[in-house]
Amino acid sequence: MAITKQELVERARAIAPGIAARAQQTEVQRKPHDDNIKEMVDAGLMPVLLPKRWGGHELGLDAHMEIVEVISSACMSTGWIAGFYMGHHFFVTKFSERAQADVFADGPTCLLPGTTNSLMKAKKVTGGWEISGRATWGSGIMHATWALVGADTDDGRRVFLIPASDTRFDDVWFMSGMAGTGSNDIVVDGAFVPEHRGLLMESFMAGPTEGSRIHENPFYSMPLMPFIYNEIAGFFSGGLAGAVDAFETTIKKRVITHSEQATRERPHNHIQLGSAIASSIVAKELARSIVRQTMPLIGGEFDLETRLRLKAQAGFLADHCRRTINEMMNRSGATNFQSSAPLQRFFRDVNTVAIHAFWDWEVAFEQLGRHRVGLAPNNPLV
Questions:
Q1: Which of 74, 99, 220, 327 is close enough to 212 for a disulfide, judged by CB 3.0 to 4.6 Å?
Q2: pLDDT of 361-370, one tens digit each?
Q3: pTM of the model
Q4: Helix axes 224-253, 342-353, angle to 10 degrees
């Protein structure tokens, strides 16, 4: 019997408390906690978007978003990696049927970091390419089974699927926020990649490919950037929800030094908490709205206006969550800067990832504004 979205969301909720309890340890060890990855894999969460052809659940963007939201409310670093591991199954469907068969030969779960921010070169050799170099921001490399990297070739930039065993990582991830993602550099030293595991970047970004067309579901032929805006929506709304829970605990328990006033009895603290809760509700509604706007377009055209509107909303969501968590942190007292306090972790994590180039809110707003006054985009990430 096919699994449902609600069943997977409930499984995520069941393991979320353990993930939250390990959040500080995840950060200290600078990579996702082994138990977190194992529990998510064992719960069957990873292949939520994978085609049934390869043993996946083939559910929708809404299922992915809600699962990521739950995990991110427990630990944003873990939610980030979970969102990519689940979402990047979509990436694989862009490649040739033979490449997809390679990746899923051992089962439907692929733990795939994907980064095109690469300093790599691909030399054409008999039957494929020889790849060397490094890719930065390798979120997911610490538990990877495969890796997606970009490299320059004689006929343009391409992306390649490489077994994780043909890569290594350079331990460079020393960050004040999102420390638990272990997003180290991916290093490749002269690995051979067969012809069928390479794809021109332009095709990878654009939408339909020879590989995506083997699936009847038009979802696998949607363009990359609108997919990514959906992929991260639940990460931000979930992180804000987790921060609000931590702030509520502070309001209920905190007694102000010297005055010995209980914050739970002060009207302006009630206003602050109510504002934070309302902001979290808005974030969840916006995350769901991004998904609701996207799903009817699958199989149709994502025109420039649509892409820019989705990008602007993703940027607004990131900034809204960042501002709300910052305000809570400003109102929570010095004890919430202790390394064991969950709120300060949400604070550092959201400020680190909210400035990501894909949903930088100022750039996103600029592109929509330029479009409305008749100017072409001046940023390639649309």
A1: 220
A2: 999 999 999 9
A3: 0.95
A4: 150
